[in-house]
Amino acid sequence: MKYEKPVITKLQSGMMNKFGSSPLYARKIRTEIDSVPIAELVGKFGSPLYVFSEQKLRNRYRELYGLFQNRYPQVTFGWSYKTNYLQAICAVLHQEGAIAEVVSEMEYDKARKLGIPGNQIIFNGPHKSMPALEKAAKEGAKINIDHMDEIFDLEKVSDKLKKKIKAGMRLNMDTGIHPQWSRFGFNLESGQALDAVKRMAGAGKIVLNGLHCHIGTYILEPDAYAVEVEKMVQFANEVEEQFGFNIEYIDIGGGLPSQSKLKGTYLPPEVAIPSLDSYAEKITDALYRNLKPGDFPELILENGRAIVDEAGSMITTLFASKRLPDGRRAYITDAGVNNLFTSFWYKFNIEVDRELSGLNEPSIIYGPLCMNIDVIDEGSLLPPLERGTRLIISPIGAYNNTQWMQFIEYRPNVVLISENGTVDLIRVSESLEDIERNERLPGRLIIEVKKPEKND
Ligand SMILES: Cc1ncc(COP(=O)(O)O)c(C=O)c1O
């Protein structure tokens, strides 16, 4: 029997967590991901390690798509590249039927390189350069105009290509969600959006054929989508009647939540987050209430986090433990905010790869960076962890592989577990050569390596 140091624990009434188990003994143990042992994954691919489950990714896509497809005749999902643009992840979702949703020329080029034709790319975002706009217009992309200057730019592209260009426009509006993402698109309530339509109709170079909006991310109010849809459809009706445009698609953006926990919220995700079904119900109900009879424009959704977040986990290894001067237990792991950028906003689920004895105590988890901001978790109840313990951190599939930073450490491997259990390396860990590839050291700054003197 292993020696266990005695601990004195202050008895506190009301310690029982109202959601279940005793916080002093609860353990979250996980020894595998999709039946592949954690030890095997780390043995082959090292630590830290991003692990994606293809099965979860496909299942979540099918589940969410099904909720809308069963309720509305014309549904398209645009995969939000910025949420995770690893080629393998995008390829899985394209195989499932998603078109691409991109917000920059870089993302546009990525989608094209992956084999997605221009007419299956939604081109959003506030910064589309003239060459990018021209390329997208030539290739028939669904361009959603963000601001007045973009209208002028697209009119110039129309002159150059000597053809009218079909395009959508992004709207922003009050749906009861705050902060309102009013910096993108044209405001509806102030009349700005209608003015933009007037301009397009007057100049006659852009043919408005779609409306787009994205009200924010991790939206916990299904009713906000009902308001969004209602306002969009009413605006579509107005534009069709007044200007003769035909609105072929209503693109309501993304924003549905994943099962992650926003920092500072009390309720656990399984209680706080409405079912995906309730969003689908509100959205399609609002469509049917507001569309003209027999009119079914294409409904486009651009969900990112709701599809990919839970498919991703990070395995990290406990490198050292410490006691802070205030008595708190602290751990240092090999994955930091450089790898887990979303830890600034979300409290992850943390599981350990083994049985551990001892009482849980509030523990703080740091990453490996020599920076004070490198905190993965400010306080979770964990048993005393031994060096080498693997922590499985989830969900991390959304935004971490795009917002990650090359900072202080090399970025690690990323693997994808296929549906039959094989593990594919989908991004190789970085080397110094990768990091310095684009640097140029002026000749005058090259440090001459001195040969050692004879008597050195
Ligand atoms: C225009 C647009 N569409 C889709 C998304 C994806 O959002 P989410 O990951 O919250 O579904 C975003 C993200 O902010 C966005 O800006």
Question: What would a concise description of this structure say?
Answer:
The chain is of the alpha/beta class. It has 13 helices and 22 strands.
Features:
single chain, 456 residues, alpha/beta, Lyase, Ornithine Decarboxylase, Chain A, domain 1, TIM Barrel, 2 domains, 13 helices, 29% helix, globular, binds pyridoxal-5'-phosphate
How would you explain this protein's 3D organization?
The chain has 456 residues and is an alpha/beta fold. It has two domains: 32-51 and 310-435, Beta Barrel (Lyase, Ornithine Decarboxylase, Chain A, domain 1); 124-303, TIM Barrel (Alpha-Beta Barrel). It has 13 helices and 22 strands. Strands 3, 14, 15, 17, 18, 19, 20, 21 and 22 form a nine-stranded mixed sheet that branches. Strands 4-5-6-7-8-10-11-13 form an eight-stranded parallel beta barrel, surrounded by seven helices. The chain has a two-stranded antiparallel sheet with strand order 1-2. α4 (105-113) links the parallel β5 (99-102) and β6 (121-123). α8 runs parallel beside α10 (276-290). The model has no long low-confidence stretch (mean pLDDT 94). Pyridoxal-5'-phosphate binds next to α11.
